[in-house]
Structure formats: C-alpha cells, structure tokens
What does this fold into?
Amino acid sequence: MAFRVFIDPGHGGTDPGAVYNSRQEKDDNLNLALTVGRILEDNGIDVVYSRTEDFYDSPYEKALKGNESEADLFLSFHRNAANMPGRGTGADMLVYSDTGFASEVAGNIGKEIEKTGLSYNGITERHNLAVLRRTKMPAVLIEAGFLDNENDNQFFDENFSELAEAIARGVMESIGQDMYDINNTPDSMDSNGMNRSDSMNYSDSMDRSNSMDRSNSLDRSDNMRFSRNINAAAGMYPYESISYEATASNGMCQCPKLYRVQVGAFTNPMFATQLLNQLLLEGYPAFVVYSDGLYRVQVGAFNQLDNAVRMEQRLRKQGYQTYITT
It folds into this structure.
C-alpha cells in the first residue's frame, strides 16, 4: 500500500499571503509545493494537492480536503515574514504538538533543509492553525525562509532544487524509504515551478494516525447527531442562536439586523455542513446562510457588538478564522 501525502500550497487566489515588494508568498508556496510533490511522486509516493493553480480555499476547507483524501501526512507550504522586514531568517517547522510522527517529519525536514545552507530555527507548536488543528492525519507546516528577507529570497531562488530535494528527503527518511530517483529531477526545475494537473488518487492508504488523540478532529461518522442537509433554495439554515429569532416563509428566513460572527464561506455545501456540525458539537450556536452563491457559516446573533466581539475572540482562540458581520 502506497504512502500518501496531501500537499497544501499555502494561501492562493485573493489571499497572497506575505507580500514583499512585488513578491507574493502564494507564488513561492505553489512552486515549491509542486516541485516537492513531483519528487515524491517520482519516488513512489501518492500525492494529492489542495491546489495546483492560483485559487483560494480557506484553511479549514484545505483541512477538510486533506481529511477526505485519506492521506497519511499533511504538508502545508509557506514562507515566513517578520514584524520588521529583514529581522527574521531561516526555516521553521510548525506542528500542532511536538510529538509523534508529525514531530519526526518536521525534525527530519528541518535537518535536511539545514544541510542546504539555510538556517533552521526548529519546531514550534501552534494550536490555532486550522491546517494543523483540524486535520486528522499528522500535519506539518513548513516555513521555507522569510519572504521579507533579501538573503532568504536569494537563497530560495538560487538553491530552489536543493531546497525541494531536502524537503522530499526529510519525508522519505521519516517513512523509512530511500530516495532512489532524486537525481532524475528535471534540470529545468527551478523557482518557476511546474504546471501539473491534480493527481488525486484514492488507493488504499497506510494507517499512520497521529500518536496523540486530538479531540478537535472532525467527526465524520454517518450518524453524526447534528448532521443535516443544506438546501441551496432555503436561503438560510436556522439554528437556535443567542439573541436570534427567525420566521420562515416558503423556506426563506427573515433575519433581524444583528451582529453575527462568520466562520467560513464555501461554494461546496458539504464543507459548510461539516463546519456547521463541528461548531454545533463544540457547543456553538451555529447556522448557515446562503447568499450570492456561498454557504456562509455563522455563529450567534447579538444585539450588542461587544457580545459579538467576545464570541469572535472565543472562536479565534479555538483556531477559527472569523470576522463580524450583520
């Protein structure tokens, strides 16, 4: 059974990530992720991508895609940025918890990157990132140098192939497999990346679950207590919410102008349903609003802005990306 890696090039589309001069993080992320994916595929690893082109998915949606792929490892590619340009340098590895297989992969990737000449800053635990917190499989977020550091950018461009090979080698070492095809990487491989089609593959995967039991993982069971279908024609999916009252007419709910906390917006109703279920299971008064082709997952409906702010802060502490709407 082939080992499967889900590769997520961070940001994309309307979300450029860090920006320095005319350089955008999303482009570096995509180029590096596709190149690493190519090397892994050449060495017999199944690879699934969250994106192979420049479009936006929310971090939560990327985590859901990773879970659906039944991958054994989730890798998210990023570049860092400091509060003051030029103050930061080197590679960082982020994990939900510095234990188990995720920690092993992060450490091996970091050591291999350091061999290329880019400094390695170590492993950092981050509990508030959706791609680390909401993924069921071990997950590692790679910060491949600082985008706002000229020296790191120069290293990234001039040593692009070596950097990609180092990351792939760290993954291969972690799963106990030698890289036999590393020297067959095309000479044309550089920071311009490759135009690759999505190779989503659903063959049987190795069970490499994380050693820690994370209660925040998504419950994907068929008999989920709060599972309901979203009907695009309904306009709104009502749920008893704080200070929220709605009256239905022909499937449409008339809603007062109250402050609500938006947690996600999806074109795919399945993803909205899953986020809704997760929020309900965690005790949040959640519902879904459908408008302009998007299923918007929202929490609470408050007369007072201060109450909405407190709810938003609570959700953000749990790792959700939020904003307040009316």
